[in-house]
Amino acid sequence: MTKNTMTLLATAALMVCAPAVLAQDKAIQQKVDALMKHMTIEEKVGQLHQLSGRQMTGPGSEKFSDKLADIRLGRVGSMLNVKGVAETREIQALALQSRLKIPLLFSLDVIHGYKTVFPVPLGEAASWDLAAIEQSAYIAAKEAAASGIHWTFAPMVDIGRDPRWGRVMEGAGEDTYLGSRIAVARIKGFQGEKLGGLDRVMATAKHFAGYGAAIAGRDYNAADMSEQQLHETYLPPFKASVDAGVATFMNSFNTLNGVPATASAYLQRDLLKGQWKYPGFVVSDWASIKELVEHGYATDLAQAAGQAINAGSDMDMEGYAYSRHLAQQIKDGKVKSSVLDDAVRRVLTKKFALGLFDDPYRYSDAAREQAALNDPEHARIARDVARKSLVLLKNEGQVLPFAKGLKSLAVIGPLAEAKRDLEGGWIVQSDESRVVSLVEGIRAQLSPQTKLTVAKGCDVACVDTSGFDAAVAAAKDADAVLLVVGESWDMSGEAKSRVDLQLPGKQAALFDALAATGKPVVVVMLAGRPLVFENVADKAAAILYAWFPGAQGGNAVADVLFGDYNPSGKLPMTFPRSVGQIPISYQQYRTGRPVLSEKNIVYRSAYIDSPNTPRYAFGHGLSYTSFAYSDLVVSKPAMKQGDKVTVSFTLTNTGNRAGEEVAQLYIRDPVASVVRPLMELKGFQKTKLAAGESRKLSFQVDRNTLAFHNTRLAWVAEPGEFELMVGTAADAIRLRGKLTLQD
Ligand code: NOJ
To answer: What is the pLDDT of residues 609-668, one digit of tens each?
Structure first.
């Protein structure tokens, strides 16, 4: 289904249930209004104050005594990091001692699973499987919601084109279209149809906005870009999140074109709450209101409070700006009381929608928590999502899959037996004893006759090479050699920017030592971002990119290595040849001096020491079978603005085993009033075909597919000819067609 048909269906569904929804909304608004009539300014400000606390009850709770007292006094609206039925119940009970007994919202970074750890979000994005991604978010929500959590700070919908930025791990990659579709799938998975389901949580679209464009990939750094770039590349996933009904937004730490996003009235008031009519609330990022002072945008915390709320930041996360200064800002006339009321109304509306006024403990149910956190079905689903996220980058001579009856296999490398690293960053409640290492997953699938040797070689930092000899000896002795290398879990994620994206320490030398044995070396790589590994890419027999695949990672990787699952992942980010090519995306803009031939790059837009092309392109990913594309038909050669055109083709599995292919539709607008990228993804379909099977697939193209923001930021589709490209990766277009948009 194309984006456009999905939007149409969503609109139709909205129209059908609109009256019921409106009635419910109205009822909630009446309750909110009634409650607000009784609230003092201080109590209102309290609803906008969010605090963090871990293990706030029991031994050690003294250090939280101020926070606990504030909760009792109704001066706190939400907590983050308080989790579990026992603790959320205890803390909620304190809030219910306050004058108006307004329940707290419990929030947490449930980013890729709660108890059951799924692949990191970038890994899941590599599945291009929206149903699997939605299901992963649903399981995370189900477990978290049973543990007292009402609200997750996910999905991160920032576009990431700079793998130096460690937080690419938390997003859906570089592409705006793919990122928007994945944002919607995640929001649906977290929230369900309507807020208040006991197996769902509120979602957050974050970080609004431009956070992924941090200059030089350094986390928290400034972002500076044209309005066009902002509207074309960075904002659409946020808009898609609004359309999908995301309950909350989080703003971001960065400045955007000179204004801290947290204090940006343009982003939060004009765009989000104005043009986009967003009814939810905006939470600041951690102390980002306080950081307005550090940015040099506010002279002190009091001014920061006024600036942030006036700009549309509704809730202050651990910044103490609102709790300390907002009431005074109102009394001083710096902030209108209507601005405060609007923010409070937005927060209370969610509390009513979640049913917390009917039963403040409804998410904190011990029996449900036990059942949800110990449901064996969740591990099965995590394994399925994990294997879908694996990307086979290279498979020379079809060295993979391995035969299960191999005589001997050497599994080598610092991450061969890793457990914690498989989980990746942002885990909140995981149980390491549930993690299946690669060696464990492999052992479980090998025939008992196979001799399995394990040699670490070195640890992840790989400074000490004294283990290399034993690793080489193990490789020489074995029929097949598998090397497991990459980053440790804490090398990607927030505040984990890197300038060097090569394999850490001497890991590449370990690979070289194994390759020198002459044995074909199969490499599994773990990382939260694209790494740079030219030598391995040249010399390895096969490379399986596993990201951080989660608790079932060992089983999932073994499923692919031994052919029980035919790999189907495709890269959601371009893999550069060197850090010098970054930022990098397949969506390059045209230049006046394109490289027409690698042999002639003089005075061309080129590097003198590297090709422009990436090592692995966006959309790349191999299968154990092969696919042929044929018979492209564009339903009509020309269309008018209101028309729809179908682009169809035949996909055939030409190999000898069943497999899944992600067919991708790209367009190019060759001449326009704003220079367009060389190609833009506009549709994709993941399809499973039996060996030898053919299927006709189609994409719908309409005005929206062809449109872009012009210099006045109007969304226009300009008449003229468009190129249509269907293929298996951004650098592997198989079919081309044309379409004319008439005046
Ligand atoms: C800071 C991060 O930027 C944000 O994504 C996260 O949700 C908050 N901390 C809360 O942990």
So the answer is: 999 999 999 999 999 999 999 999 999 999 999 999 999 999 999 999 999 999 999 999
Question: Which tens digits make up the pLDDT trace of 191-228?
Answer: 999 999 999 999 999 999 999 999 999 999 999 999 99
Token readout for 182 is: 């994945």
Give the strands of the sheet with 281-283, arranged side by side: 204-208, 248-251, 281-283
Averaged pLDDT, 349-353: 98
The DSSP element (H or E) to which 454 belongs, if any, is: strand 451-455
Of the candidates 58, 76, 82, the residue with the CA atom closest to the CA atom of residue 149: 82
Alpha-carbon Rg for the chain, nearest whole angstrom, is 26
pLDDT at 8 over 80: no
505 φ/ψ sector (left φ>0, alpha ψ -120 to 50, else beta)? left
Mutate to test the pocket of ligand 1, among 106, 169, 250, 290 (most ligand atoms within 8 A of CB): 250
Token duo for residue 537:
């890419």
pTM to 2 decimal places: 0.96
CB 622 within 8 A of CB 729: no
Question: Residue 189 and residue 201: Cα distance in Å, rounded?
Answer: 9
For residue 702, indicate whether it is catalytic.
no
Probe target for ligand 1 pocket from 54, 80, 109, 288, with the most ligand atoms within 8 Å of CB: 109
Distance of CA 435 to the CA centre of its chain: 22
Q: Which two tokens stand for residue 231?
A: 């509207």
Residue 174 has pLDDT above 90, yes or no: yes
Q: Tell me the residue type at 233.
A: T
Residue with tokens 């226009």, as numbered in its chain: 716
